[in-house]
Amino acid sequence: MSAAPLESNATNAAGYEDLCLYIDGQFLKGEGRKEQNVINPATGQVIARLPHASTDDLNRALAAAQKAFESWKHSSPMERSRIMRKVAELTRQRANEIGRNITLDMGKPLAEAIGEVTSCAEHADWTAEESRRIYGRVIPPRLPNVRQMVLREPVGVCAAFSPWNFPYNQAIRKICAAIGAGCTIIIKGPEDAPSAVVAIARMFHDAGLPPGVLNVVWGVPAEVSKHLIDSPIVRKISFTGSVPVGKQLAAMAAAQMKRSTMELGGHSPVIVCEDADVDRAADLLSGFKFRNAGQVCVSPTRFYIQEKVFDRFMARFIDRTKGMKVGDGLAADTKMGPLAHERRVPALESFVNDANDRGARIELGGKRMGGGGFFFEPTIVINPPDDSMLMTTEPFGPIAGCVPYKDLQDTIRRANSLPYGLSSYAFTTNTAHALAIQNGIEAGMVNINHFGQALAETPFGGVKDSGIGSEGGMETFDGYLVTKFVTQMG
Hints:
With 490 residues, the chain is α/β, with parallel strands linked by helices.
């Protein structure tokens, strides 16, 4: 994307967010800063220009966050709760507008975009409550004149990096966790889909958050992340994104003994047992697989179907997928929007070509869709080999690889054969099968007979290469607090 200076006649698309930085309580626009185009993936057209933070801007954000932390760490939990409750209220009020802008810059169908925003009001409400319950404890002493206490204190200034596929959800989780714990935060959201993060900043600003507690910056990702992580001011890193980038940032943080929370990629297995409600499983999975055009880190991608029900499942799954309308996310009947980036189209074509070369059958889709924009057909591949690209590398797009299986234990082994372990899915009415899957699957989240993850009150995170730590639930504050032991003799 271009980072040339903004031309005088350039304007945002009608109704689209007025993009800016947010540093020390101030919204900062272009004003001579480098800028980049923001593209509508449904049309390929430029809809806005996004200002990049200069080195001086980044240093100002660091200084503002450090100064604000000195007072915010002592703020009343009641005040933190009040602000986040107000943000939850504003989220619900502004959901339609924010959702429309997400559809414009990211591409997902409008109903999905509005639903993403609306559901995130619960994250603000949940954190508002849980931030009032960050407890320490008293340890019984060995001597009568000794008092022993454990305190939980905010870690300090946090740097967060959030992705483009759920631009509102992923950003507000990190922001609420940090602020609720008494930390301050600098967040770099996705330059490709920036409207949601700017909208979040406006809501916290309108809710009365003190200047410097939240700061929003934009720029070349590698440059911004290095500058923030290298700063001695930053004490905690939170990143959601790809495994290679996550490992790089985690290594940078570890070299300076800085805490990190990493929610990285997955390659989620699905197991459909012979005793499952097959029709219901096919219906649910057809919708969930192609949600957000498959651009979801927990998207089901490797389908293992018991051979006795394989044909029945596939017939239903294919039929449901054929009826899915693909188009501009603003169209009322659209069920799947475009890919967020043009570069993803040839990437998905490479998955299809590899599957073809290895003898798999492209049962449905497999091609780019014409008419402008970055559209790719919902694609179903039957019998891709276990060592194929589709079954070993996360496609992050609307492609499902489907294979029959005979033995459940062998299938659990196959599901665990990759270095990823974020989410997993299973459908069965047999309690023995359900227990074997719960105990056997190596994943941070196991969903059986429904999709029940990513709620405000439940932890979200992976194992193995899929990450470190959790966001959501009572675990959400773990990465933002340090433990202090106090012992006093009287």
